[in-house]
Amino acid sequence: MNKNRSHAMQAIKTFPSKALLTPLLAALVLAGCASALPMPAEHAGVAVPADFSGTSAAAASAGAASAAAATEAQPRGAWWLAFGDAQLTALVERAGDANTDIQQAAARLAEARALLRSADAQRLPQLGASAGVARQAGAQFANGASPATLGTAGLNLSYEVDLSGRLSRASEAALLDAQARAALLQSTRLMVQADVAQTYLQLRAVQAERALVAQSLDIYRDSLRLTTRRAQAGDAAELDVARMQTEVSATESELLALDRQQAALAHALALLAGDIAGRLELPEGAAQATLPVIPAGVPAAVLARRPDVAAAQATVQAELARVGIAQAAWFPDIALTAQGGYASPELGDLLRWSARSWGLNALLSLPLFDGGRRAAQEEGAKARLEAAVAAQRGQVLTALRDVEDQLSALRLLAAQSEVLEQSVRSAERASHLSDVRWRNGYVSQLELLDARRNALRQRRNALQVRTAQYTGTVMLIRALGGSWEQSGAPA
């Protein structure tokens, strides 16, 4: 700064009109002393590992997905196609057009882009036209007359010299805000897609569970009819009939509870798809979705394309630019203006060549005392920057935790599913044998009911674990910011 100041003072001494150039040169010296703001560390200083603890590094080197660039505009891929369910695909595409959360996020992005255009316009020359008629009294003109009116018409041209970089930083901050909004739109779209997929898969699981319970209810009703006939023939006790009737009623109650849960999920799915609850037509039937296979070795660098992480990074950069704006308030502002047009005491002579007038102005302004306002604004901008950096760090840590949670859950669910398959086979075999032995009078009705209840419980547990695998896969895709493939293709 001392070197810049000495050069400027030497230039003042050599110029004959140094009194006029002193303010301008002083402003240039101050602008030259402005230091560049340091860029924040990548991922807010979080040391992102090469891959997740739940994946294999060897498999990653053998052809798994690679790191993706951090950009809010990068396609996240039609990842729902990996489930192979046409109805799921139709619902996700429908929600992309009609979901109100996506529409609100898109509107906020449009607002941010409009603010960016407004900030860019401040850096361009401003041209305006003006015309007016004013009542005058006591003004003496060149011809000695004292007109009662004065008409003016002309053009005004103004331009603010961005000496301190304030306007450019404001434009940069608006651009980064728009990028953050674009990333949030992607995040909202991904969230809605994941919610649609999870709700749909849960609805299909409830329908499948209802089918199991309905099947068990048919078996219990057949057993109740058989027990009633035996009781009438004197081969069974009334207690056996009461027990079977209790089992039938309890199963009917479970069926009604599943119907209530199914209706709630259908209404939630309608809301996500932008439709009125109760109007969404979804035919019942077995789920057509297949469980996608997650490749081993998913690298942790895919978090760079996660929309909320990209939005947090853009927010930090925008706050950094706003710190520069606050610091630029200490430097002088230079505004250049020019006016040209006509002025005449007679409206009929307003557009004559002799009534022309023009003017050029240069204004340099530098507040000397503001009661600490600029210092407070700079401190506030730095505090907001620190908060944004902390928020970004928290976002990155949360993203890493989300992925690790889902990878661990899916690994354990796969093992649990294998164990439950064996349990289901054993329980169904035991139920079948108990039914045969009960019909032949070798076991009691209590043993038969216990075997049937156990078989139904194991089948429902297996179905719930399978559903958890589906929803866990969707949550992993959401945690990764989209498909685990770099190209965004479904896995």
TrEMBL record:
Gene3D superfamilies: Outer membrane efflux proteins (OEP). Pfam families: OEP. Residues 1-36 form the signal peptide. Residues 410-466 form a coiled coil. The lineage of its organism: Bacteria, Pseudomonadati, Pseudomonadota, Betaproteobacteria, Burkholderiales. This is Efflux transporter outer membrane subunit. It is a lipid-anchor. SUPFAM superfamilies: Outer membrane efflux proteins (OEP) (SSF56954). It is found in: Cell membrane. Belongs to the outer membrane factor (OMF) (TC 1.B.17) family. Keywords: Coiled coil, Lipoprotein, Membrane, Palmitate, Plasmid, Signal, Transmembrane, Transmembrane beta strand.
